[in-house]
Specification:
heterodimer; A: 283 residues; TIM Barrel; 39% helix; B: 124 residues; alpha/beta; Rossmann fold; 44% helix; globular
Chain lengths: 283, 124
């Protein structure tokens, strides 16, 4: 009998992992900070696309099971990355709020592949109003105790609201792409960025801007106090092999001035100027 | 452009038969074995016609739940419901939920294809 779609998704070997770098943009030192591990579903199916895969999983209310499978797939793949590189993994709020065993599960997978837990940042996604906040808070505390950091995904949209910011007190706010477009001409979006940066400073949380579409926007983000960017313009989500081939995992500390790798030698991102939309420095 | 058809049934053999036949006629066909999979595909893709079994994913009338989902989402998708039951009340309920065609199983594949052709405006 053919395995069901869910059975295939829950088999970590059916999942594949992509990595998208997150860069520090502070003070002209544009360096690789970490990579976000992103899951793709079974190859050759519609569910290879992450939005479709996770839409299905949420309809099945199988967030917990699928998060465990994703963690297993990611830990196996991360074993091929330099030991110093930080790894961001997405975990549903429902998993953290309903599954006290998640931290142990993550710990087992990390140990199985000799990965240090303090390399991980757990990105909390898809908070639901029904989420068990006290349990979520306890799990977040356990993750921190184990050495991990917390990021809150999609800040500004959906349920990543002020309550979640306070309850989770993340080390990173990941500002949704919606607020990062055309900052040069859009004072309202700049006001949103400014407010999140201000709030982040009050909570000692750094801001990561997602999906910036131009170097102008990245420059403005840096000037406004955003510390990190993650966007296809700089590097799309790629396989482990592609990531290695791009030569951005430099030793000894995985630090990388991406302007140099882009062939711009000593120039900072401000010197690069505008890069046409759709192009990417590391593509 | 080929009309896009979604077949929803948890019987792999039937799905395979419909898939092969309709694909052979030039339709672009996706399949789903359960209601959540179908709902996900309907959320992300547009289909001219959905062919669904009435009994779905162990739900007696899961096919009608899918029809409700389609109509609640205001999708223009036309819906064919397949069932072994021919109860008039069931047909009436299906029509009330917005089912376009109610076909009794077993039916000839050519009948199914003709129905799909009519509902999709004749575009294979």
């Amino acid at each position: 009998m053919r395995k069901s779609l869910l059975d295939r998704i829950l088999d970590p070997q059916q999942l594949s992992v992509r990595f998208q770098p997150i860069f520090s943009i502070g003070l002209g030192e544009h360096q690789l900070h970490s990579v976000e591990a992103l899951i793709r579903g079974p190859r050759g199916t519609h569910f290879e696309a992450a939005p479709i895969l996770f839409d299905y999983v949420r309809r099945k209310k199988e967030e917990r099971a699928v998060d465990n499978s994703c963690i297993a797939a990611i830990c196996a793949e991360v074993a091929g990355l330099p030991r110093e590189l930080r790894i961001n993994v997405n975990v549903h709020a429902a998993t953290l709020g309903q599954n006290p065993g998640f931290v142990d599960s993550l710990r087992r997978q990390a140990y199985k592949h000799s990965l240090s837990l303090d390399r991980f940042t757990v990105e909390i996604v898809e908070y639901a109003p029904t989420c068990d906040i006290p349990e979520l808070s306890r799990t977040v505390a356990s993750l921190r105790k184990a050495g991990m950091r917390i990021a809150l995904d999609d800040v500004g949209v959906g349920q990543s609201n002020y309550r979640m910011m306070l309850d989770c007190h993340p080390e990173y706010f990941k500002l949704d792409a919606y607020f990062v477009r055309d900052l040069k001409n859009d004072s309202k979006r700049r006001a949103v960025v400014e407010s999140v940066v201000t709030f982040g400073k009050a909570l000692h949380s750094a801001v990561v801007a997602e999906a910036a579409e131009s170097i102008d926007d990245i420059t403005i983000l840096g000037d406004m106090g955003v510390e990190f960017v993650q966007c296809n313009l700089l590097c799309p989500a790629v396989t482990l092999e592609e990531l290695r081939a791009k030569n951005i995992l430099g030793e000894p500390a995985n630090r990388f001035a991406f302007a140099q790798s882009a062939g711009v030698e000593t120039k900072s991102i401000k010197d690069i100027g505008h890069i046409p939309s759709g192009s990417a420095l590391f593509v | 452009m080929n009309a896009k058809v979604l077949i929803v049934d948890d019987d792999d053999q039937l799905v395979s038969a419909y898939l092969d036949y309709l694909t052979g006629l030039g339709y672009s066909v996706d399949t789903a074995g359960e209601i959540e999979e179908a709902q996900t595909l309907l959320t992300h893709f547009r289909y001219a016609v959905v062919i669904t079994d009435l009994r779905l994913s162990r739900l007696s009338f899961g096919g009608l739940d899918l029809v409700k989902f389609i109509r609640n989402a205001s999708l223009a998708t036309r819906v064919v419901v397949l069932t072994a039951y021919g109860w008039p009340e069931l047909k009436a309920e299906a029509a009330n939920e917005g089912v376009d065609v109610f076909l009794r199983k077993p039916m000839r594949l050519s009948d199914l294809a003709r129905t799909v052709a009519v509902l999709s405006g004749g575009a294979a």
